[in-house]
Amino acid sequence: MLKKLIFILVGIAIVGFLGYNYIYKEHRNIAEEEAEYVVSADMLVEGFMENPEMAEQKYLNKAIAVTGKVTSINKNNLTLDNSVFCQFEKPVEGVVLHSTVKVKGRCIGFDSLLGEIRLDNCSILK
Q: Distance of alpha carbon 37 from its chain centroid, rounded?
């Protein structure tokens, strides 16, 4: 009886440990990841317009680098070619309106209402 109780307690401890590690695993650091795809803003938009399902399978939740012309800048975000919205965790510094930049971030999808592709956890590449 005592062995059975110890076996059950050890089993519960193992399941609890695995569950805790699954729920509270480390967050991704997109800035340190290598970009899986390097594309221009125009090519990225074209891919989502032509075949949204295939583009989502290819780019969704992946680190990608996008090159484009800055058409809008706010405190923590910017827009490339009026079609790729890039969200930064820190304020955007050193970027000039109408300049060409390369931004790396995680693709979180296509906003059909605004017609924009959205990236988060972005950083400016030199």
A: 12
